[in-house]
Amino acid sequence: MARRFLSAILLLLLLSGKAAAGWYHVENYQGSIGPHPIHLSLQTYDFGSGITVEGSYFYDSRQSPIALYGKISGGRIALCEISDEKEFQRIFVIGSKTPVDTTGCALTLDVTDSGAAGNWSKGTETYPVSLKRIAGLDDTGEGKIDGAVEIPFWAQTATDRFAGVYKNTSAGICMTKMQVIKKLGGKVAQEVIFRDDDVCSAGMLMTPIYMNVEKWIEHGKDVISVNFRGGGAGTTIDYVFDPTTKKYRQKK
Predict the structure, then answer these.
(1) Count of CB atoms within 10 A of residue 187's CB?
(2) Rounded-to-integer distance, Cα 241 and Cα 55, Å
(3) Same structural domain, 233 and 158
(4) Which of 116, 137, 160, 220 would staple 131 via disulfide (CB 3.0–4.6 Å)?
(5) How many angstroms separate the CA atoms of 222 and 229, rounded?
(6) 110 lies in the same domain as 226
(7) Strands 51-59 and 66-73: what pairing?
(8) Are residues 239 and 203 in the same domain?
(9) Cα separation values, 145 from 11, 44, 165, Å
(10) To the nearest 10°, the Cα dihedral for 90, 92, 95, 98?
């Protein structure tokens, strides 16, 4: 109940912003931070409190998504990493009441049409960042996708992360399937297919795109919720892990 209440607050905050044909403008990148291969995804939007970009990235060796927020100024982006659940709630769910300060954020990127380059710095550690643009999604106009768009959702469990595969279908842009990816080894263990040809609403709720799959806990067990556009504040389908089949199944 608390999770859905907080999601509704976020929805109302976003709806108070400017209207557009859609709200997703996402660019996906592949590259490295120093010697470490990474994948990074960025969504640009006016999220309020001065935040104009949010994102998710993971080190290929760890497969644990790290939430990002920041500001764009010209072709330069400053990105801060979310450090814990308390900060996640304050920045993404409740929303900051004052302009967000990105001074001292870990990532600074100069973006071009083909990629991005910059630095990652934390404490005494500094590494160069080199990224190649590999895919993009934009439904703020007529709607277009180029490349294979996989969204690394912020939700994760101790063993799994979740990725949404977005495609341009006959009904428009939507998430056609959710991948369950094992953190150990980075292999796809399961694909949950969404057959939604009439409405094409899976993964299209008006939140940051990385929140279209959420995790919450019920009776000590992880519940994975997929958001769908429609019905005012949207609808959800919940999934739980079945230890017998080793797969996620729809919650009864």
Answers:
(1) 11
(2) 26
(3) yes
(4) 116
(5) 23
(6) no
(7) antiparallel
(8) yes
(9) 24, 15, 11
(10) 80
Instruction: Look up the domain containing 14 and give its range.
Output: 2-132
Query: Which residue carries 């644990």 as its tokens?
Result: 64
End-to-end CA distance of the chain: 16
Closest CA to 202 of 241, 230, 162: 230
Give Cα 98 distance to the centre of its chain: 23
User: What is the rounded distance in angstroms from the CA atom of residue 109 to the CA atom of residue 117?
Assistant: 5
Check residue 197 and give its pLDDT. Answer: 64
Q: At residue 18, what are phi and psi to the nearest 5 degrees?
A: -70, 145
Q: Are residues 205 and 149 in the same domain?
A: yes
Bridging pattern class, strands 115-122 and 25-33: unpaired
Residues 146 and 117 both lie in one domain: no
pLDDT tens across 119-136, in order? Answer: 999 989 999 999 999 999
* 26 and 78 within one domain: yes
Task: Give the count of alpha carbons within 13 A of 133, CB side only.
Answer: 15
Domain boundary among 117, 132, 147: 132
- 205 residue type, one letter: L
Q: Please report which residue ranges of 154-236 form alpha helices under DSSP H.
A: none
Structural domains counted in the chain: 2
Contact 54, 43 (CB under 8 A): yes
144-153 pLDDT, tens digit each: 999 999 999 9
**Same structural domain for residues 160 and 146?**
yes
Bridge partner residues of 18 (DSSP): none
- Domain end call among 110, 132, 154: 132
pTM of the predicted model over 0.70: yes
